[in-house]
What does this fold into?
Amino acid sequence: MINIAILGYGTVGSGVVEVLETNKKSIDIKAGEELFIKYVLDLKEFPGTSIESKLTKRFEDIIEDDSVEVIVEVMGGLNPAYDFVKTALLKGKSVVTSNKELVARYGPELLEIARNKNINFLFEASVGGGIPIIRPLNKSLTADEIYEITGILNGTTNYILSKMSREGLNFEDVLKEAQELGFAERNPEADIEGYDACRKIAILSSLAYGMHVNFEEIHTEGITKVRLKDLEYAKKLGYQVKLLGISKKINEKAYAMVAPMMISNNHPLSNVHDVFNAIFIKGNVIGDVMFYGSGAGKLPTASAVVADVVDAVKHLDKNIITHWYSKEMNLMSLEEVPSQLFIALEGHGYQDIIEQVFGKVSYIQSDDETVFITEKSTEGELKEKITQLTQVHQVKVTSTIRIEKD
Ligand code: HSE
It folds into this structure.
């Protein structure tokens, strides 16, 4: 029998208990051991639940109990999660987490402790909820040099953009409705400003490149400036607007970015709607692969956590090598990044100025705006050209959205 402890009995923590109870028989067979929840750490009481007798408010009860071999951290946030996880690993207990903030910031340090102790630090649920993506990157795709990851990594924003596009509603109204239905958090900043997707693309990039991609260096924009009009223009062009996390390696340089982007209806990611997530990967020998599924939610996330617990139990005294080391990856500066833009200007009559500044462009019909798509260039050059429009020619730019073509 293997004793486990769960830190946090919130949405994911209670989901982990539910999954372990629902599928107990088959999970124990697959783990090769009976899994037993010995403790659940939480400050609240949960009378009448199956874990009532296992509850403790003291982390010390867990850390000082040598019979606990696997700890599940599903509290979220950095404090006290980081101290608890580090202490547990240093004590020789394997840790499974769903905490993307913890993994994005401290992944290499925690992985190194696990390596030195010959135990495991596993975090499948930190990206894409129930979608298997960390293990595939670390196991199934090891024959490849991964040179591109493009992901719809946030369910809340994908739901908002899908509903705006489908029902012709504006951002504020859909956000309000999503909050009322419980899809979006009361404080939705991390989702709508792209911070959640930023940490997830940082984790995926680090695993793909084997070096630490610092999430603080990733250019991140959210969806708050996307107008209903932009979605309508996108439709006319045969595009969808999606909040994408992108990471690309060009020769030995890489860049990563999170921003709303237009993608063609021919791209597999354009069919990923509502709260679903998907991750599209390009490898130099496998070609294209895509992983699709429920990117959030109690049971999908708990499914990924429990699968990690099973893996931890199967490798109790054997570190599973994870290709993510502490050396920092140098990312390209934003100015150098290849880019192509959709641009909308207030009013009409700017054709000469546009062609003088941008050269050849393609126009989109609009009643009250001048809307066009630039040729491919770099972020730096396009930014400089927009500055010429606004400062030299006094034109008002009402919207810009990147176009992701490759
Ligand atoms: N808030 C996240 C989302 C949950 O909307 O995708 C999963 O990390």
Notes: The mean pLDDT is 96. The radius of gyration is 23 Å. The pocket of L-homoserine is lined by residues 129, 154-156, 191, 196, 295-296 (CB under 6 Å). The first strand starts at residue 2 and ends at 7.
